[in-house]
Write a structure and sequence with these properties.
6-stranded parallel β-sheet, binds adenosine-5'-diphosphate, Phosphoglycerate_kinase, 2 domains, alpha/beta, binds magnesium ion, Rossmann fold, single chain, 13 helices, elongated, Phosphoglycerate_kinase_sf, 393 residues, ADP binding
Length: 393
């Protein structure tokens, strides 16, 4: 990796400001999914073992610069104590004299969690003064919040202008696994792109098309590609202002000699509802009152084969409205195929990750990205500001 990581620095006795992504789903004070907290454990444990004085910072939800008691990180400190099997101190303010006093009490290996950094309006504005205030608390900066790395905020970017910054272990893994797949993939290299809209994913399709051997398109966005080929899609979600782009991408794939796979059959329903009567139809057989809510079984089979015979596969975006059981088969078929790949499999995108977890196949993937928006921007080939600000080797 081009950036320095936790492995490259000496931390004993140092005050280390660690930006983590503890933006977990809450039901009142109850954490309904602690995946993100667990994902930060390797970095925290490494720092403890090495005798750092650890200051953890995160955002939670969207308090918009106000103190919102329901978005306090206190419940997360409790959960973190259970996971670490040791005390986690809590600082009610994340900057200023109170925060500094709490930091100064830390001994080697101690862990302090700061209150929600977005309680300060300067956080999301990447305010220079606020970043300097955060920096005053520490000697070193570690960014382990891959899920927030596509945002230039005071604790994800600004602070790195005042303290030497390196990547944490989670950040390192995200960047190295996805970076290696994009830079020197074992071939055949396939990408599966789905989800609701083409407009969300044009940049990722363009970037990946240049690198992959096969591109599989599914989900709502496939409709726009089919419309570009002249098919009538009834009431399906079609972005008419993106048909031209879809046509250009199809041409581009042909010119570059890439395999571009589009659905050959669809699951069609007359309403967007879990119990809507559904049937399977060919792409040239969509009635005016029908909408495509999943790829059909023939397409699932074709896609599964294209995935299983690949050595590197990246997936972003479900193949259908997988939240409804009736329209989840295509997404599940792709998830199953990915689990059988003899090679590298990477999933990015919040809904795709949820689908794989729901199918019980998460353990069988090489890498499941913890960053929805961040992984999408990374796959688009963009530089993430939270990464750019870290020290290079
Ligand atoms: P990710 O979070 O993995 O990047 P997206 O957010 O782009 O994925 O897309 C996920 C959403 O796309 C899901 O809510 C799903 O219901 C929707 N979707 C998939 N296929 C269709 C379709 N054929 N019609 C309408 N919505 C769809
Ligand atoms: Mg999504």
């Amino acid at each position: 990796m081009e950036k320095k990581t936790l492995r490259d620095i000496e931390v004993r006795g140092k005050r280390v400001f660690v930006r983590v992504d503890f933006n977990v789903p809450l039901d009142g004070e109850k954490i309904t999914d602690d995946t993100r907290i667990r994902a930060a454990l390797p970095t925290i444990q490494e720092l403890r073992q090495k005798g750092a004085r650890i200051i953890l910072a995160s955002h939670l939800g969207r308090p918009k610069g106000q103190v919102v008691p329901g978005l306090s990180l206190r419940p997360i400190a409790k959960r973190l104590e259970e996971l670490l099997g040791g005390p986690v101190f809590f600082s009610e303010d994340s900057v200023g004299a109170g925060a500094l006093a709490n930091v100064m009490k830390l001994r080697e290996g101690d862990v302090l969690l700061l209150e929600n950094v977005r309680f300060h309006s300067g956080e999301e504005k990447n305010d220079r003064e606020l970043a300097a205030e955060f920096a005053k608390l520490a000697d070193l900066y570690v960014n382990d919040a891959f899920g927030a790395a596509h945002r230039a905020h005071a604790t994800t970017e600004g602070i790195a202008h005042f303290l030497p910054g390196v990547a944490g272990l989670l950040m390192e893994r995200e960047l190295s696994v996805m970076g290696a797949a994009l830079a020197h993939p074992e071939r055949p290299f396939a990408a599966i792109i789905g989800g609701a809209k083409v407009s969300d994913k044009i940049a990722v399709i363009e970037n990946l098309l240049a690198k992959v051997d096969r591109l599989l398109i599914g989900g709502g966005m496939a409709n726009t590609f089919l419309a570009a080929q002249g098919y009538a899609l009834g009431k399906s979600l079609v972005e008419s202002d993106r048909i031209q782009v879809a046509r250009e991408l199809i041409d581009q794939a042909r010119t570059m000699g890439k395999e571009l796979l589009l659905p050959v059959d669809l699951v069609l329903a007359t309403a967007f509802a879990p119990d809507a009567p559904a049937r399977i139809g060919e792409i040239d057989d969509v009635k005016a009152d029908e909408m495509a809510l999943d790829i059909g079984p023939k397409t699932s089979q074709l896609y599964a084969k294209a995935v299983i015979t690949a050595k590197t596969v990246i997936w972003n975006g479900p193949m259908g409205v997988f939240e409804m059981e009736r329209f989840a088969a295509g997404t599940n078929a792709v998830a199953q195929a990915m689990a059988e790949v003899q090679g590298t499999t990477i999933i990015g995108g919040g809904d795709s990750v949820a689908a794989v977890e729901k199918a019980g196949l998460a353990e069988r993937m090489t890498h499941i990205s913890t960053g929805g928006g961040a992984s999408l921007e990374f796959l688009e080939g963009k530089t993430l500001p939270g990464v750019a600000a870290l020290q290079s080797r």
